[in-house]
Amino acid sequence: MNSPYGTRWLAVCIVVAALAAIGGADVPVASVIGNASQDTALNDDSAHERILWLRAEIARHDDLYFKKAAPEISDAAYDALKRELVVLEQAHPEFAQNSVLGDDRSGRFLTYRHRVRMLGLDKSYTEAELRTFHGRHEKQLNHADLVYVVEPKYDGVAISVTYENGRLVRAVTRGNGTEGDDVTANVRTIRSLATELRATDTDGSANPIPDIVELRGEIYVSFAEFGRINRDQEEQGSEPFAHPRNLAAGTLKLTNPEEVAQRKLEIVFYGWGAWESAQGEPASQRELHTLIRAWGLPGLEHIKLASGADELWMAVQALGRERSRFGFPTDGAVVKLDAADLWEALGASDQSSRWAVAFKFAPARVRTQVRSITLQVGRTGVLTPVAELEPVVLGGSTVSRALLHNREWIAQHDIRVDDAVFLEKAGEIIPQLAGVDTAARPATSKPYEFPSECPECRTPVESLTGEAAVRCSNHSCPAQVRRRVEHFASKACVDIDGLGPAMVEKLVAKGWVKDIADLYRLRREDLLTLGGNVDKSTDRLLAAIERSKRVELWRFINGLGIPRVGAAKAKQLAAKFGSLEALAAVRAVDPTAGIDSAAAESVLEFLSDPRNRMMVKDLVRLGVEPKKQSAASPD
Ligand code: IVH
Fold first, then answer.
1. Is 407 helix (H, G, I), strand (E, B) or coil?
2. Which of 395, 486, 558, 593 is buried deepest, with most CB atoms within 10 A?
3. How far is the CA of 310 from the centre of ligand 1 (A)?
4. Interval between CA 243 and ligand 1 midpoint (Å)
5. Taking phi first (over 0 means left), then psi (-120 to 50 degrees means alpha), and beta for anything else, what does residue 582 get?
6. Residue nearest to atom 13 of ligand 1 (CA)
7. Looking at ligand 1, which atom is closest to the CA of residue 348?
8. Residues assigned a catalytic role
9. Half-sphere exposure of 349 (CA within 13 A, CB side)
10. What digits encode the pLDDT tens for the residues 141-193?
């Protein structure tokens, strides 16, 4: 390792080394989680060099995260970079100006200056750090039994929503803390967000309404909505989101509020910036929570109270245990002094408040081994590499596979067969490789060579310009055919009972099914030769196929597997064309007539392949006659 930190850094915990390695860092690995003091021994030149590199690296990851919605490193690795920067800047204040501690401005929105700067939180990872936090307060405030509010740290995107005389006027992202993106139109689509604060409480009492208030909160996506959208993404052949936070961040930065409204963003409030009111600010964090609910706004759930260090630690641990049952993502607890009059006495640093601290829960993480790397062939021919792992229990379930995204990703992170790897669960759901234990790699290990042929049909693989994906270009590749038929027969499409992956595999292997239309050409006498208890199941399957001829048109269109056309766009197309014949005949689409231009383009591209146009015509000839859209909403 070519490190300006010298050999003592070789002792740095391997997890951190691995985390930085997965970030593709070509600069020395020296981030330390939970150890802040060693950097002070650096000479000025190397410290300055490291600070500059850290700033550039953090800015690069901000860009990947906020602007491209394609993060390369885990949160823990990102936090480690930021933490190292803070420590180095504290030790070398001469280099600390113009620090880049995150900036989410995307350049696609007007920017707006916060009335009061949006600060971040210092982070803690251990019981000892929490006790130090409490001890410092006790000493500084000369106060025993300090009361804390312990809140879940919602894992989404920070937002500041301004109400003037009770009316929502603006919603702005954190940006660089001083100035953020004005995303008001997008935030207005959030159904649980009141545009008008409730002036009278349910019991008839009056709620004080400030002249101006900047409410601070978090926009997030629930696990249920994350699952729904990712299922849709997969159906449309698009990459799933890796974490609910990426989905929230990506959605909030869409420039079309109608698209934002199709995804169910949620919001909660936990603080304030400016507060201009004759009655003054809330006297405590508890009072703020009460007021937020009284105004009819969504407040935090699962808040705890604690007095003194022992109770504080117990409350944080309890939250850590409970959070696996929450329906929304959290990555820690936020500990806040309850009494607002104490906040000022503690002051704030340039980046964070001193009266609050985040306690970060470690993500579920295990070490295992890559047995092999296989390729999964998608229905459009995209070849997705998958790490086949030594099975291991992670966050309550056994994991034996993890997606490796694409060829570039494997090369960038240098993942190899037989590597010992660290596995994390993103958003508590999807297992992801978070690092390679490169120190455990045998000397004989070789970089992974991406196959040059499709594993199924041996067609040379193709990479399209501008796309990270590698494809098998053979439209008749049996694996692609199987995926297309499985998709067509799935519940979200024409729903053919009895046509699961095992049956599809048999039909394709026999050569009876080469495309979707062939399903309607299947002959009873052929199916009877498949063996097993065939009489009954053959008749059931044929009846289910027959029934599928009359499903709703949008289900059929969804089943055709047109790239980027999922259920929502299929509904638009069904409403527009009304029949398969009309769809098969289409030569041009007027994008203004009820369907968006992306869907129109996808349809034309799909039909420009004569095999697809022929298949749709064949379906019509074979008696497929989906039900016309009813006048009522197809939902
Ligand atoms: S308080 C001075 N409370 O965590 C207080 N933040 O830097 C500032 N977050 O992105 C924040 N849940 O948006 C606070 N209950 C909570 C929170 C919370 C999530 C986010 C916040 C920011 C990060 C802290």
1. helix
2. 558
3. 23
4. 18
5. alpha
6. 158
7. 2
8. 153
9. 13
10. 888 789 999 999 999 999 999 999 999 999 999 999 999 999 999 999 999 99
